Structures are given as C-alpha cells and as structure tokens.
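As agreed, record minuted below.
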Amino acid sequence: MAFDFPKENEFEAPIPINNKELIGLNASALENCLNTPKPDCFLKYHGLLTMYLLHNEYYSQAVLTAEKGLQLSFRLYETLYPDLSNGYFDNSISIFSHEYVLLLYGGKAIEKCRSQEDAANFYEHYVRNGHWVHSIVQAAKRAAKIYKKIGNDNKAIDCLKYVLENIRASSVTQAYFENEIDKSKKIDKVDLARDRTIFIKDYRELAQVDEYPLSLSKIDYEQPELQASHYFLAKDRNVFKTENYFWWAIQSLLYYEEIFADIPEYTFKNYQEINGVPSDFFSGDKFYRNREKILKEKNEKLLKLDLESEVNSRFEMYKDKNIGHLVIDKITKKGLLELVKVVPVNIIVSICDRINQDNLSNRSGFPDLIVYDRSYASFQFIEVKKKGEKLRFHQKLWLDFLRNKNVDVVVCRVV
C-alpha cells in the first residue's frame, strides 16, 4: 500500500522557511528534504527544523514541529509496517531513526517552554507509542529521571517496568532498568563487586605518550590516565591505553567470518560496504541469536590456537577493509600483539563473547589501561577516575564480569 502523503499545508513550518536569520546556512538542507519525495526526507525535515528552532530559542514552535513530525512517523509505521509482529524495530531503519531527533529536541523544547512534568509526559507518551527500541529506551530513561526529580517515583517505576515487560531491550538495558527500579524502591538488588581502589597523587611529571610503552596505543590519553601511567611506569611495569578500541579490533579480527556471515534477512552488501558492519550488528542480542552456533564454534576453536600468531596474520589480511569495529587510527599492531601475549586466551575469548552477545550495550565501559609485568607474568586492568568521578553503570558491569573471571581489576583514583 502506498503512503498517503499529507497535503502540502501539513508541512508548513510554524515560522517561514525562508527566515535566513533563523535557519542560517542550513536552509538548503531543509529545502532538499522538502523537494525529495520520500517519507524519511519529510521526517528529516521536521527533525532538522526542530533542532534549529530550539537552538534559536523558538521553543513553542520547536515543540509543535516535533509533535507534527512524530505524528507523521506514526502514520508511516501504520502504512508501511502493518504486519510487524511485535510492533518494534531493534535495528536502525532510516525512517524511524529520525524519531530520535524529534524526541530529543522536542523534549528539550518542552522543558524550556512548559514544565518538567510536561516533558516527562512527552517522553512517556513516546515510550508507549514509539517504534524504534533505541529511542524508546532513551525516552524511558529521560522520563524516569524527570519523574524522580519532581518526586513522582511511582510514575518513574511504571515507565521503566513498561519497557521491561513489553520491549525486548538489550541485556545491559534490562539490568540498568531493574537496578533503577530497585533503587527507587530502596532495594539493593544488583550486587556489583565492590571497587578494589588505589589512590595516587596528582603528579606534576607525566608519562610521555610518544614513548614506549604508551606509544603502543594511538588513543588519546586524558591527563588522569597519564598520571596513572606515570605511577605504574615508576614501579617498573608496562602500561598502555586499550579502553574499548583494542577489544573491538580483536573481536573484528578473530570473528570476521562470523560477523559477516550470510544471514539472508540482514545481509545487505551495500549496507556493509558503507557502514562496515551487518545491519543487525547493533540490534541488541539479535546479532548473537542469528549466529549463536557459529560463534560458539569459533570460541572453541580459538581456545586451541596461538592467538598471537592468529592476530598477526589477520591484522595484515583485514587492516585495509572497512570494518566498523576495526578503528586502525586508534590502535597499533604491536599493541594488539602485546595484549594477546599477556592476557590468557580464555579471558580474551570470554571478553569477545560478551561483546558479541550485545554489540550495542557491551561495546563500551571496558577499563582504560592494561598494566603488566615486563616478564608477562601478571597483568591488571585499570579503570582511571579523577577525584569525585563516579563509575558509570556499563563500567560497573564490565568490572564485575572481569572479576568473576578472576581477573585483577583496579579502580585508580587520581587525587
């Protein structure tokens, strides 16, 4: 069934589109959206205009534009996807990814020109009527945060419970929402391992990023990380920054065949060539479910291999390919080889397996540094925090996971 486009006047902006002072250099982008006869271009138009209206403090007009855009998006859903089994998309479809822009900037505009309660109601309305899981989760987080802030804990809990009970969110999102609900009920249910923390002083002298071993990484070092690195180097230990990029690279190299396996529903050559990942890569646990058998088989195979040799050969094989998680300008081959040399193969496979289970949620939060003896006899993962900085929820889950694997993980606080 063809989409019944709204009449032209339904797309009239709340203020004139030719207001150059308001739109500035982006007038042509908006004009292109209107002149392209595609539904997602009309949605993009509403998203861009909402953003510019908010930026220029036309708050009421921004709200009206966002609301019209979301109404259009819901009409598109009913027309184009009437038979969608669960009513939700867990991978990014361009039409509905624009909903996130409308949601984000529309909600901010409501906070500016109406009230926080109105903004929370706006976000909750999207939670119960939206179609893209990522946007629904973000809307639920924002609604719950505002409801708690204005003292309405019951509505915050109801909003989070709705997502848990009705939407297949990622495992990390589920854990986060459950923890937030329990915190609201004053229940300490999620038993995350307590920090093993060391405190170091604020060194004036810093380790040099262009010298070995810090040069094993091309990731920018924050000042607290340089101070922590100086501390460990002074103790005659090697240290460099791995954060998330090195583990993405190891995952991409060791699991290349499985990541790009031919899954008919999700294998689109053009999409992979442009984005460097299959279309279900960031779709919560669907990526893992689509490849569970072959991923488990690869895990077993890797446990028997010399990973140093495997990573070395695969790096040369794939370094020039467009692979979304292989960010060459953030890593070095020598750093990758050091990492797989010092970390036991079973730990490496366990880390990659957790990332594979949910690329969207588990791709972030890994400790900042690896510290190891120059004899490779022992190693630690180090999460660096400056004074007063809190661990994020994703980071707590990674620390807990690693400690359950008997890995020495330390929170290093620079004071």
